[in-house]
Amino acid sequence: MKTIFHHPPEPAGGKKYWRSLEELSETPEFRSLLEREFPRGAAEFNDEDGLSRRSFLKLMGASTALAGLGLSGCHRPVMHLVPFTKSVEWAIPGAPLFYATSMPGRRCALPLVVTTYDGRPTKVDGNPLHPVTKGASDVFAQASILNLYDPDRSRYFLENGEQADAARFNLSLDKIRGNLAANGGAGIAFLVEQDNSPTRERLRGEVLKKFPQATWCVYEPLGNDDAARILEAGGTRLSPQIDKADVILALDCDFLGCDDGGVEASRAFAARRQPDQPAGGRMNRLYVVENRYTLTGGVADHRLRCPASQIAAFALALAKEIAKRTTGNAALDPFDGGIAKPQVNASFVEGWVERTAEDLIDARGRGLVMAGPRQPAAVHLLVQSINKALGNLGSTVMGMPVTENPGVTIGELARDIADKKVNTLFILGGNPVYNAPSDLEWEKLQKSIPVVVRVGIYVDETSAGCSWHVPAAHYLEAWGDGRASDGSYLSGQPMILPLFDGWSDLDILARLAGLPKPAGSELVRETFRSIAKAADFDAEWNKFLHDGFLEGSAVAATAPQAVAAPAGYVRDNLNLTSMTGEDAYEVVFTSSASVDDGRYANNSWLQELPDPITKLTWDNAALISPATAKKLGITPKTFGQKDFPVIEVALENRKIEIAALVAPGHADHSVSIPLGYGRTATGWVGANAGVDVYPLRTSATPYFAAGATIRLTGNVHSLAITQDHNNMEGRALVREATLDQYQKNPEFAKTMWMDADLPATNPTLYSHPPMTGLNQWGMVIDLNKCTGCNACVVACQAENNIPIVGKEQVINGREMHWIRNDRYFASWDKQDDDPEMVMEPMLCQQCENAPCETVCPVNATVHSEEGLNVMAYNRCIGTRYCSNNCPFKVRRFNFFDYQQRPVAPQKVPLFGEVSGLKLGPLTEKGSPDTLKMQKNPNVTVRMRGIMEKCTFCVQRIETAKIAQRVKAGPSPDVRVPADAFQVACQQACPAEAIVFGDILEDSGSKVSKLRKDPRGYTLLAYLNVNSRITYLAKIRNPNMKMPGADKIAEFDAAQQEKKPKGAP
Amino acid sequence: MANFFPRWSNWLPIKLLVCAFVVSNILTGFVWYYFTPKYTRVGYQPIQPVPFPHSLHVTQLGMDCRYCHSFVEVAAHSNVPNTQTCMNCHSQVQKDNPKLLPVRQSWTSGQPVEWVQIHKTPDYAYFNHSVHVNRGISCFSCHGDINKMDVVTERQPLSMSWCLSCHRAPEEHLRPEAQVFNLDWTPPAGQNQRDIGLALKKAWNVNPPENCAGCHR
User: Which among A86, A862, A966 is the nearest to B211, CB-wise?
Assistant: First the structure.
């Protein structure tokens, strides 16, 4: 008989934490589904794709009969040891080598250190030596290694679609060069991605010297060329100093997530977010105005929903409030009188703008107002005037020099092509056929050019119809360089020779310019020579390569003057969009947290990575607010919903059909749709993933477009969302309080909910495993610092050879991520349109009294003397009782052979398309060679039928223990010193939210100190599991004068009265 | 009714039981002896592409193990030598010996010599050489008297229970660090292995892992 546990019910009067609107419906189906770990049908085959249990057994029976029953003798097959012939310098078989490099990016380059085994890179991490990033990385850097090894990468030169080779391409290139030399390069154009590489700039100069008439166009679909032109006209780019700001107002600026901030913003923000600041500092306060929930909005103390097109109106309202309250503000005077009253029905929550303005004025010189990087230039100029009026310029807003010369925009290039001024186009990277503004009709334009040479890492939409497709070298295969966010010069060493003889941007530019030494290393050396001006060049060069950056090359930020915009620019261009009419919607084209602008569409780790907010995988969806949903007639269906209604989004005469997802905290009259999906020319990963939204985007409306209409089509589409797989159910897993509450009672988290009634000693019936190890491992996760960016999830996947399972299996709840970010919305009233959002990383708690260990029938999971809950994969027989017993549901089971069987759907006669996983022995066994190269050799690759979970990176722990013992040799000094190594998630986290190490007090490690933090608590302590992971409660810093401030981060008033532990 | 069961069938159930008991015991014993690594692996002596004699090189010529197995003190995998290591001597010594032809061919062609692997643990068990040789376990303990072998033979089963027998009692195999690569070492007169081992175990704080994570990652 099934035991029904009656856990303590959700506190009636307390703050509610909920996962989704579906949960709020609370139908009986929802409740029953909640009790099952996997949704109904997950443990069985679905009939829908034609393969029911019965037909599977039929197939299996037939194939077993056909299988050979050969015996291979009593000894294992012969295996060989194959050494090198000539010794290779530095190569120790099986031992890792670490090289520094950098990953080029839109905004700046990211310094990296890459782990290589036997000549192949396996893991990308941040460079801990770099003073700004200090080892942090983001999801794209972590997942980029899979792009290197993508089996669908372009492997061959293609001349007009036919396979060719480098020799023929070189001949073609010489011919092109000859033709163009005659007329000074008129008619040659370059379409490149944004990259601040000094060597590329230098080569651009060389090429333009040779072809003075050439056109250089930089295009990034997620960039903001038009604004940059105006804002950076003086050669300075504004750089917000987040660590210096006490009050931050982010207008549609997700600086902690995808926009503009990068990893250094997370680190700087997290440092100021601590409730106990050093030397009399204050915990910072964040106001966010945005149209959809972003990571920054989740961390905010106060958040206002506002359509993206109305940010301009908000900025103007704020400017007026500030002007009203301060005198002598020359910066704002033109706006006060100059702009006509906004003709919009844009009203903001009563008091929001006023109180925010007051707080910003109070924090003069220590405040910071930021506008989203894709907002129009007029908004940015207005925001800068606000900053100037508040005295922030020169303290929290500094200037950095722009290092690249501007090029033309893609619109101008398109005009030149249409005017037949371009006869040779070089497309270096990017994918303009897919992501150019739709009004340009780029595909037609491109086909009209006689010679198009495309250097691309995939044979994609842009490669079709090109004269030449050149396989591109990945950044890990090619020489390069870049500048970090502080301007320091970074090296870009290759880790491996190009796998498919690819060429980098530098290669092709050097050849075009006819340079005598076109090898990548030589080119970077030349650039280094001019930048470093070193006395001992070779020593400096070696140090540069070793460190990954040139010491002392950081560019000091300067106090900026207000941007000199053309007079009256803001007055004339501030577009105060009116949202008239009930059915007026804006469409916001957001960047995807998984595939960026579409370049990672074939990266399976990123496709399966749940979007931090919506937890959507393998797809994009149109996000709409609950009010909009109600108007359309969409009701959140029962929990475990698979099919979502499809809506049609129409802008003038262009329309798309896309599934609609109801997003709590989304602005009304606004629809957010991530770009980057619906690719047509990719490998199986990107195929059939989402809807292409680029057709809706025009040059005039690169970020948002007003005047859209939406309607239900009546169709449905299945979406794989992980958010409903795990719920909090009224248990205080995430604990938060306001700064005031924390200061009154620092240990509030230790006595919340059931923890208030914990007995002094919690008796246990079974014996505690002996913790006799010299090191005891534990972890602290600071919820106050965590933004939920998911860098830890991808880092763990890369480090531990975690497979991907495909969309169908994610729908069944079988995603394999060992660490996940649980995202909860929080509100007092479940119908609240403005909930708060909290993130909680969840991984195996390594419980000292682990419920999973006692129920394993074969003792495959045991406890080590160092406090780890250890998994012996080869013992596991797949009972899944351990996962059943785990209260945190962090154990992942390999239902299929994800590593060796194809995840993609296969065509089967009579049955149609069936997932390769379900076909099992009928498919080809094995993994593509390149994917095998990525695997970490220190971690077992698990097969079907095996349970796995976070091991605290036991391979790194053992490596550290071995290293210490080898160092100790014939001495007793075998204890691993404090903080000698990091686990993968800790290493990736840009906010330093995860700290791992030896928890024993005498070790002096960081984690042992953090465990004593008063904010610390463990999860489900009343179950006496004695988790080794301590969570530090989240603190919010609300401004009590703001509307709605009293609801923020308040936990149950009744619990507030409970006395702290130990109080008389 | 007539008896249609013959008399002898009275004893049938007991006979069946005894027979089943005896047969299952024999089968178990058979598998226990013949199907475990102690029988299947010990004595494995495959034919190598080059008949390399350790006895000549180590005992007669006095080469140290680490000249060829150069990374054993720093890495998990103890490497077999590159062709270049062999050619260090054999470009001049025995340079026309037909037995060394595969080595010379490997050197000129660039194709490596494919040695047959003898000592192998499963892929999910991660063994690390460096921590053993640096902490007082000699090559001899696992590879036997390899310095005297003309052809390498597997002397130990390398099964998990065999590994655990040392991990649970390392004093049976610990020796002074200077003697790790002296495969002929025996405890000096008047001392025995266990006493030496216990003293070293205490002095060096030797506690080999006995939990699964020590080897199964």
Answer: A862
**Residue A496 φ then ψ, to 5°:** -155, 150
Task: Let me know: does A848 contact A1028? Beta carbons within 8 Å.
Answer: yes
Q: Rounded to 5 degrees, what angle do the CA atoms A879, A883, A885 make?
A: 105
CA–CA separation, B49 vs A579, rounded Å?
Answer: 81
Contacts of B200 in chain A (CB under 8 A): 970
Which residue from A819, A886, A829 is spatially nearest to A852, judged by alpha carbons? A886
Comparing C-alpha atoms, which of A733, A746, A819 is closest to residue A274?
Answer: A746
Burial B116-130 (b: 16+ CB within 10 A, else e): eebbeeeebbbbbbb
Q: Residue B65 in 3-state DSSP?
A: helix
Q: How far is CA A499 from CA A185, A510, A543, A936, in A?
A: 33, 21, 27, 19
Q: How many CA atoms lie within 13 A of A634 on its CB side?
A: 30
Residue position matching structure tokens 């049976």: B172
Q: Is residue B71 within 8 Å of A118, Cβ to Cβ?
A: no
Could you give the dihedral angle defined by the CA atoms of residues B49, B54, B55 and B61, in that order, rounded to the nearest 10 degrees?
120
- What is residue A12's DSSP assignment? S
The per-residue pLDDT for range B53-68, each reduced to its tens digit, is: 999 999 999 999 999 9
* Candidate from A95, A872, A957 with C-beta closest to B212: A872
d(CA A82, CA B79): 9
Distance separating alpha carbons of residues A468 and A880, to the nearest angstrom: 53
Q: Three-state SS for A236?
A: strand
The reported pLDDT for the residue numbered A71 is 42
Arithmetic mean of pLDDT, B148-177 = 95
Element at A412 (helix H, strand E): helix A410-418
Interchain CB contact of B83 with A (< 8 Å): yes
As a whole number, mean pLDDT of residues A306-315 equals 91
CA dist B158 to A74, A461, A935, B69, Å? 16, 55, 26, 19
Short-list A578, A597, A581, A589, CA closest to A704: A589
CB atoms within 10 A of CB A808: 20
The span from the CA of A98 to the CA of A640, in Å, is 44
Query: Is the Cβ pair B75, A74 closer than 8 Å?
Result: no
B135–A83 C-beta distance less than 8 A: no
ipTM of the modeled complex: 0.93
**Residues A470, A169 contacting (CB under 8 angstroms):** yes
What are the residues facing A452 on neighbouring strands?
A: A425
Using CA atoms, how far apart are residues A795 and A789, in angstroms rounded to an integer? Answer: 12
How far apart are alpha carbons A644 and A641 in whole angstroms?
A: 7
pLDDT tens per residue across span A555-609: 988 888 766 666 677 777 777 766 666 778 999 999 999 999 999 999 999 999 9
Comparing CA positions, the residue from A949, A852, A813 lying closest to residue A37 is: A813
The whole-chain average pLDDT of chain A stands at 87
| Residue of chain B minimizing CA distance to A74 | B40
A21 contact partners, CB below 8 Å, separation of at least 6 = A626, A636, A662, A664
**Is A957 close to B213, i.e. CB distance below 8 A?**
yes
Residue A448 DSSP class: H
Q: Strand A836-842 and strand A397-401: pairing? A: unpaired
Is residue A528 within 8 A of residue A544, CB to CB? The reply is: yes
3-state secondary structure (DSSP) of residue A239: strand
CB A668 within 8 A of CB A625: yes
Q: What digits encode the pLDDT tens for the residues B72-94?
A: 999 999 999 999 999 999 999 99
The 10s digit of each residue's pLDDT in A524-546 is: 999 999 999 878 999 999 999 99
